[in-house]
Amino acid sequence: MTSLTSKESNQLSEETGLSKLSIQDWHKRFVQECPTGSISKERYINLYRSYYPRARNSDTYAQMLFTAFDDDRDQALNFREFLRVVAVSQGTDEKAKLELAYKAYNRNQSDANLTRKEIQNAVMAILNLVETKDDTDDNNDTDKRQTTIDWVMKRLGYEEKNEITKKEFIRRCKGDTNLYEFLAFHCVPKPNCSDGDLRGKEKYKITIKTGTEGKKLVLLKASGTDANVYLILHGEKANSGTIQLQNSQTHKDPFEHGHTDVFIQFLPSLGKIKGATLWHTGDKSQGWLVENLMITNEASNTTTYFPVQRWLDSDEYDKKTKVELIPNQPPGYDE
């Protein structure tokens, strides 16, 4: 798979709204991780299984979305198709997210009406994705599922008809925040490691909150940073190695004032997290106030909390931009 030409980058930028620099970065990663030039359906489903390890069943939802993305229906996602996934998942265009969801729910028939049976299947697939294997499958659980299905059907207007148009689906979802949050397409797992690398690895969710306090010597409330941020997790079984925290799941521009950023990493089992090393490489103008750090192993459903509560700033306080962390203990400042 060759590098993108300037013409191809321009075309993809016009199609997706992503910057050419961002497209080049995504393409470089795509080539490294998908040397064949495409992501197979099987691999895409496996990515979902790894991304949602505690889900009851992620396969049906993954298959629905794969079908929606696979425009040429060759059972694989090429870079252009994958980039469209990235653009919609990272964007804020509600209509685009709903159009993609509609296309997925009626099996890539974007212009056909959405039937009662199709939306019922979609709701069940979503519930299987968001409910965990630990949830009991007793009568009460079945009643809850039916209640959710009935709620969706009513809000979409299926009480009066057996199918709805795409226009009506979008209108009703945009007019109902809860319905939108349940049905809209939001994010998908990125192929950040090869199929072989996924084996034996566990999904870790890294959550970092940037504080809201201004610097002592600056009047502006500049608690965020644009610097590169790195993390090492220290576990009983192993250490993670250096992780660069980029591609936040919650913000295009991470580590800004008051933001909570979430990052996903697939790592070998680290065991119980005993500590962490957090740092950035910014200069004096890029100090960063870190409120807290949370590490969740989604395979074992365990969370480790680090109350950082300090600046990483080469110009103030103890002038340190790197700090060693212990769970549940604020590190403070060196005298």
From TrEMBL:
Stored Gene3D superfamilies: EF-hand, PLAT/LH2 domain
Coiled-coil region(s): none
Top-level division of the source organism's lineage: Eukaryota
Protein name, as recorded: PLAT domain-containing protein
Segments forming domain PLAT: 202-326
InterPro entries: EF-hand-dom_pair, EF_Hand_1_Ca_BS, Inner_ear_hair_cell_LOXHD, PLAT/LH2_dom, PLAT/LH2_dom_sf
Keyword annotations of the record: Calcium
Pfam families the record matches: PLAT
NAD recorded as keyword: no
Presence of keyword Kinase: no
